[in-house]
Amino acid sequence: MILSVHAVFGAAVAGMVPSHPMAGFVLGFASHFVLDAIPHRDYDLISVESGPGKKFQLVDLLQKKFALIRDMFLVSFDALIGFCLAFVFFFNPVHPFIFFIGAFAALIPDGLTFLYLLLKHKPLGHFFDFHVSFIHTKLTLKLNQITGIILQFCTVGVIIAIMVGVKYLLI
Ligand SMILES: [Zn+2]
Question: Where in the sequence is the domain holding 24, given as residue range(s)?
Fold first, then answer.
């Protein structure tokens, strides 16, 4: 799923254990895999799309640079929105850092995957296989990008509502 949805969910699960930052970190990290296993539709990253093998040309290089800059901007904006939403919905004045710990931990798996794609470092490859090949859903919903993103927020909203409901029932 997209970074902002992961950040919000990470902050929500860490917020369940506000006085245990380590547990919040682990739960935030683990929450990433739960969401990725649910069928969804992400936005497209144009720099990782594989095109037909063309010969090196200046225009290709410029197009690739543009695609990479566009994607970096989109991904950074997505993460920033995630931290803002996590703050708005899950900031706890008694434990002011727990929302950030959960949101940050929830983004680490995609950060490690990005590092792998960049460096092709072997130990990261095992993590990549686990995250992308094993955990991540193989079912991409046939939706346009906007509807896909809205549905992701709805999905995470329902899961958080259930979590909060269960928590209040148990207390
Ligand atoms: Zn992921």
Answer: 3-170
